[in-house]
């Protein structure tokens, strides 16, 4: 999760650069339109020039999204593995409790439920970030670009309970001591 948060911060910084470049371009275009209207000698609009810095930022944001996708895929694999362990436990021990628990106090089925909940949160968040990456550099609406930035930063699909759940999982597995 720390890696996800670091990538989220890096992605926000990159997305912020993209939005600032787009707003700056719009401001320059508006100044050019006003200048063209005042001179009225050249009826053609200037063709938009290629912005290499914007392209580099878009590539960087796309790479950040790819790294986040890898993390989310690992979460799905962990969830799938935990589900398989639950199924194996049920098959081996039937409906009764397992004699040797895998975790300190949680049954395996609860561990699976928590994994699934976290995985679904991050999956929805990743889908939102994919939409943002696809649209942020192409939007002409400044308000929409600000919503994209806010959504990237505040991660609306990730509950506040996610860090608590993760800490509890680490305690249950013995990876974190009290």
Characteristic key phrases:
5 helices; 178 residues; mainly alpha; elongated
Helix content: over 70%
The count of DSSP E runs of length 2 or more, i.e. the number of strands, is 0
Task: Give the mean pLDDT.
Answer: 86
Low-confidence stretches: none
Shape: elongated
Element order, helices and strands?
HHHHH
Could you characterize what this model shows?
By secondary structure, the protein is mostly helical. 75% of the residues lie in helices and 0% in strands. The protein contains 5 helices and no strands. It has helices at 2-39, 52-93, 108-135, 142-154, 161-173. The mean pLDDT is 86.
Helix/strand layout:
Layout: H1 2-39, H2 52-93, H3 108-135, H4 142-154, H5 161-173
Helix pairs in contact: 1-2, 1-4, 2-3, 3-5
Short structural description:
The protein has helices at 2-39, 52-93, 108-135, 142-154, 161-173. It is an all-alpha fold and 178 residues long.
